[in-house]
Amino acid sequence: MFKSTIFTPIPNLKKMNILIVGGTGKTGRLLISQGLEEGHCITVMVRKPNKLKINNPNLKVLKGNVLNLENVETAVQGQDAVLSALGHKQFFIKTSILSKGTMNIIRAMEKKEVDRFICITSLGINESRFRLGLYYTLFVIPVILFFYFRDKSKQEKLIAQSNLDWTIVRPGQLTNGRKRTNYQHGPNLGSYILTKMISRASVAHFLLKNLTSNLYLHKAVGITN
User: Fold this and answer.
1) For residues 3 and 188, what is the distance between their CA atoms, to the nearest angstrom?
2) 88-104, pLDDT tens digit by residue?
């Protein structure tokens, strides 16, 4: 288990061109605002640009769909890194939005030679199975989020099989709490009994700090309070 204070920055990569996918979601909006505060140049690809009411000279909003490979290739061009907070609310039907969208991101990044990819999934996926607590393990995941988590599992496997410099970030239950910097992060976080939580603002902070760290390169990492 590690504290967030041990990140070792890579020199000369403090300010970056970053593509954020899933920018209209709650976590995505925080990624945008925190990224802009840090001085990064942010590009956001969204299906409905009018949903994103943020004005900043360092923000570029592109209309596009992650399920359209040409749209993704256009958005990826010229970026230093891609951050994905991709999600949806189609919980009760079989879906492949996350895996297909992520496959397009991977293909576009490999074609455009953009290496750094950080993607949010969740505790409870693959080798972190059961680590979101009994309530999620016995009820929420099998009853409400079965198809959603199955697609997330496939999404993670596609990322791990890619040639990118990837990091998978698995938060606990997301909250709208304030940003904290003393959160826990590591490969074996979570609980088989209790549901561990983390604020979306803290997750956004963690993703941005990982842009300039090799600590979790080619690894999946949990994050909780």
Assistant:
1) 13
2) 878 788 889 999 999 99
Q: Residues 209, 148, 127, 35: what is their CA dihedral angle, to the nearest 10 degrees? A: 0
Q: Is residue 35 within 8 Å of residue 85, measured between CB atoms?
A: no
Q: How far is CA 104 from the centre of its chain?
A: 15
Burial class (CB in 10 A: 0-12, 13-18, 19+), 147: middle
pLDDT in tens, 122-179: 999 999 999 999 999 999 999 999 999 999 999 999 999 999 999 999 999 999 999 9
Beta bridge partners of 223: 171, 185
Whole-angstrom distance, CA of residue 3 vs CA of residue 132: 20
